[in-house]
Amino acid sequence: MNLMETHFNIQRRLYDYQFALTRTPLEFEQAHQRFIELYNTTAHQGLLKEQWASPIPLDVLGAAQGRLYTPDELARKFAHALVPRTTNRYGCVTLHSYHFYVEQGLPQTQVLLWVYGHELRAVFDNVLLAAYHCHYDLRHGKVTDIRDGRFYPTRFASPQGALIPLNPQESLVLYRPKSWSRHPSLPFPAQQLWLFERVKMA
Description:
The chain is α+β, with helices and mostly antiparallel strands. The protein folds into two domains: 2-61, no CATH class; 71-175, no CATH class. The chain is built from five helices and eight strands. The strands form two sheets. A five-stranded antiparallel sheet has the order 1-4-5-6-7, with no helix packed on it. A hairpin with a 2-residue loop joins β5 (119-124) and β6 (127-137). The N and C termini lie far apart (100 Å).
């Protein structure tokens, strides 16, 4: 793995100059395509040393094809965290003490929460339901600072609709910190007072 990373880093640095000459996204894309074409059709020293019949990568790989993934699939595969959660009867979920809305049309349903970059997404049946801005704490493996919800029209929405539909400005994220003590502290018993105070006569 280290050898592969070193090899590709060297190739990248060698071609940085060509990329630096581009001025538009189209020129950059064309330079990238030229680089791929040159790389795949040039004999590689390592393949020559191994005495491959054809030291050209395009011939070595032959008809091998990679797999194509949609941007959403790639984001999911490289997500920091994938967490299943079950919505309550109002379509809300709880994650790391944060309570927030997902989809009212999916009560008591398991949805998948996943973090990619600074975004927390709620997905059901490969359909994006909601997205929130968040921060992922790599050290503790926790999501923090969930805010600014965005909701998407889906086939799961209730046909009746909500009396007051949620929008990004009205969505509310509740933070419920856990209590440090396992048992609630009991109050000290109050001292019972006399109904009638007896006074000792002299």
